[in-house]
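User: Hey, my collaborator sent me this sequence without any context and asked if I could get a structure. I don't really work with proteins. Can you help?
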Amino acid sequence: MKRSVSVLIPLRQRLRAAGWTGRRLAEELGVGEATVKRWLAGRGLTLDRLDQLALLADTSLAELAQAVERPQSGLAQELTLAQERALSADGFLSFLFMVILGGHDWEEVARDFEVPPRQMEAALIRLERLALIDRLADGRARPLVDRAIIWRKTPMRAQFEARMKPQFLDMDFAAADAVYASDVVKLSAQGAAMLAEMIEKHRRDVQALAAKDRAVSHLPKSWYAMLSAARPLDTSGLRQLEEEGNADAPA
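Assistant: No problem. I've predicted the 3D structure and written it out in structure-token form, which is a compact way to encode the shape of the chain:
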């Protein structure tokens, strides 16, 4: 059972993030709370029970095994479905988490956006209960998730559609403070895959830039949102423009 014991660490984290207490698990599985505690400590835990617990945590034995084999940075490499659902349901909570994940202090958010102390404290408690941050003795918050995390599940994508996408689509690209670049290229499937890797590398480069700027620059700073995206080109609009051009051309 050595393998089972090793996967219990990420399993316990994900159960906690999904809101499962010992009592709730006991009621769900029809056993005593003491039995659940023994299982989570690795005693008397069968493979079938381990699989049941994984399902309740919105994960699988394969994902738990992968979590064990990942580099031991002490940080989660992927959010659970329950964590993403909680973040996607609360715009301020997800923003605060992303700020802390980016290395900023939560006090910056409180100061810059004039967040009432009670609201900030409630959000920090929720993030802590979701196993997304640790509260340190000096009051700072430390993320428990790797900064290079990739959002794979649907809840955060839905939040992007509802909250972030409209902001980018309504952006005045003619404004003096607008920073953007665009291009049209023709790529094979292999080239498109390489482009996706370049976009992800660009995200990490921007994170590194922000960390360096925070460390060395004492100039006033503003919050920026960045979107890097690529998709197959929809040429229907070009065909319509061509038809309109032909219609307007002199006979």
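In plain terms: The radius of gyration is 23 Å. You can pass these tokens on to your collaborator as they are.
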